[in-house]
Amino acid sequence: MGSSGLSLFLSGPFGLLLLLLLLLLLQAAGLAGASQLPLAINTWAFRRAAEAAWSTLQAGGSEMDAVEKGCGQCEIDQCDGSVGYGGSPDEHGETTLDAMIMDGNTMQVGAVADLRRIKNAIGVARKVIEHTRHTLLVGESASMFAESMGFPCEDLTTQSSLSIYLKWLNRSCQPNFWKNVTPDASKSCGPYKQTAKFNKEEQTVWERRIQISNHDTIGMIVIGQTGSIAAGTSTNGANHKIQGRVGDSPIAGAGAYADSTAGGAAATGDGDIMMRFLPSYQAVEYMRTGMDPTVACQKVISRIQKYHPYFFGAVICANMSGSYGAACNKLPGFTQFHFMVSNPTLRQPSEQIVDCI
């Protein structure tokens, strides 16, 4: 076909159809090649935390910076009363904090647990990486370390946390985390002593409602433009916990895990159960085999369900390419899980919802 014939063909109806098809193919190719990185994803609908992490990335901050800023924003905001100061008093009325941060390039982890009188737990956790050869610092010694790093010593008790504690005392300390003790922990505040008779542990509907209404940890995964991954958590733990209790949040592989050669994951929920299964580590290992992030999250939840069908929990997952997913265990009153996602295809940090399984 000569040049004049080609021009005539392109100007005809078949030519217009061909051009339209070419445009559609180019558009589809553009969408397929659209970058899903960088990515920031966090548990629950904690929008300000998501915005803080995303804006840190957009300003040129590192993945570790974004995780620290995002989780730190929740500590400032006291997200749902389950993160930061002034929430979840233990059985002596004190608020203590747990946090961890992990660098998926170096596999370094910094964590603190049972941290007292220091508000910025995720900041202290990062200092553990930067200024020690350790991974986890706990209790009074962690607070002393934080003070040596320049963190101000502040009271973590507020009128709100004090009110929660006093109401609990007036309910004869119900619910609590004791079992197989005397006097009967379901009716009194103790002090308790062990009993010779042991009963099978059962979780009441009331306990489940307490856990669900208080949400729990913020867990965050950040993946940079080049695929570097960081993850972190921050929480004030379980309401009315036994003093000294540490949950899954500051434990690498339980609360969160990051490996830039595979992906990142973070968990939220009943840490006393979830930490026994290392769900974040397991999810990352599933993704290493090429498994879709949503399926990886679902398999982790299903694994725990076999032993604890009524546990309260959820997991978020993201792989190296920026694909992400989440899963949660279905309970009465908890049938969907809300989480936040930020990436280039979204105009702003957006709330996502997944049905529980």
Number of strands: 14
User: What form results from the Cα inertia axes?
Assistant: globular
Total of DSSP H or I helical runs spanning 4+ residues: 11
Class by SSE composition: alpha+beta
- Please list the strands of the largest sheet in the order they lie side by side: 4-3-2-8-7-1-13-14
Strand count, sense and barrel status of the largest sheet are: 8 strands, mixed
| C-alpha-based Rg, rounded | 24 Å
N→C terminal distance: 61 Å
Strand content: 15-25%
Estimate the mean pLDDT confidence. 89
Q: What's the helix-strand series?
A: HHEHHEEHEHHEEHEEEEHHHEEEE
* Helical proportion, percent range: 25-40%
Instruction: Give the low-pLDDT segments.
Output: 23-34, 204-210
Keywords:
globular; 357 residues; alpha+beta; 14 strands
Structure, explained:
The protein has helices at 3-11, 13-32, 47-58, 63-77, 121-131, 139-148, 159-170, 205-213, 271-274, 279-288, 293-305; strands spanning 39-43, 97-103, 108-115, 136-138, 181-182, 193-194, 218-223, 229-235, 256-259, 263-269, 313-319, 324-328, 336-342, 350-355. A hairpin with a 7-residue loop joins β13 and β14 (350-355). It is 35% helix and 21% strand. With 357 residues, it is of the alpha+beta class.
What's this model, at a glance?
This protein is an alpha+beta fold and 357 residues long. The protein is 35% helix and 21% strand.
Write the SSE topology:
Elements (H helix, E strand, L loop, with lengths): L2 H9 L1 H20 L6 E5 L3 H12 L4 H15 L19 E7 L4 E8 L5 H11 L4 E3 H10 L10 H12 L10 E2 L10 E2 L10 H9 L4 E6 L5 E7 L20 E4 L3 E7 L1 H4 L4 H10 L4 H13 L7 E7 L4 E5 L7 E7 L7 E6 L2
Parallel strand pairs: 3-4
Antiparallel strand pairs: 1-7, 1-13, 2-3, 2-8, 5-6, 7-8, 9-10, 10-11, 11-12, 13-14
Helix pairs in contact: 1-2, 3-4, 4-5, 10-11
